[in-house]
């Protein structure tokens, strides 16, 4: 290259100012949107946590929230309540929906000893009785959403206990099984291969259960675990008079192995 030939190289022309400003604003807006999304997510999570806490507090003592899909989950800390069956209820019919407090069972449908009229005999089943069906006036009431120990409740059976869709109106709990009432509890299979829970009560627990069972002699007594009726048993229908259960309580029904194990754990809490 000769000395007389000089090539001047100009520095690169910067992008126009008008192009830089919109790009900066665009990036800034993106940062604001990301921050807003993050703040919204945090607020949603915080709101959900507050809602859970409020729901837990509003339930109050002696109240268990009932799930829409009845199961007994292990480690759930569900209450195990012994409750009288006041009457049966048909499946829920949305077209007949009713609001307000649960209606009282009509007299002809009450599961009383007089209505059931059990008579021990030598038949195969060992007794005869009247068939007291569900109260049709209760079809419009949905299942109770909270399982209060001190209130009447309308609950479904666990995994299809009883006829399809049959529900139970239960009176206030007459006994709550806890570690103080139970010496041992185990999930076992009966001779027919079905899961059940054998509960051996303490001396104090046995006395309370005998009193409760005597009050429900020739009637249905339900075991309510966390808002699900896991068993609804007739109290000594083949006997003419009440006799002690000698501290042994058996919970049976259409139980899975996991449900039986969860119930055995729950009664010992």
Description:
With 269 residues, the chain is of the alpha+beta class. It folds into 2 domains: 17-59; 63-266, no CATH class. The chain is 26% helix and 25% strand. The chain has helices at residues 17-59, 113-116, 203-215, 257-266; strands at 63-65, 80-89, 119-120, 127-128, 146-148, 153-156, 167-170, 175-177, 182-189, 195-201, 220-225, 228-234, 248-255. The strands form 4 sheets. Strands 2, 6, 7, 8, 11 and 12 form a 6-stranded antiparallel sheet that branches. Strands 9-10-13 form a 3-stranded antiparallel sheet. Strand 3 (119-120) and strand 4 form a beta hairpin. The N and C termini lie far apart (98 Å). Mean pLDDT is 78; it is low at 1-29 and 34-61.
Summary, kept brief:
This protein has helices spanning 17-59, 113-116, 203-215, 257-266, and strands at 63-65, 80-89, 119-120, 127-128, 146-148, 153-156, 167-170, 175-177, 182-189, 195-201, 220-225, 228-234, 248-255.
Features:
2 domains, 3-stranded antiparallel sheet, single chain, 25% strand, 4 helices, 269 residues, 6-stranded antiparallel sheet, alpha+beta
Let me know the largest β-sheet. 6 strands, antiparallel
Number of strands: 13
The end-to-end distance, rounded to whole angstroms, is 98 Å
Task: Label the structural class.
Answer: alpha+beta
Question: What is the chain-wise order of helices and strands?
Answer: HEEHEEEEEEEEHEEEH
- Mean pLDDT, rounded to whole units? 78
Shape: globular
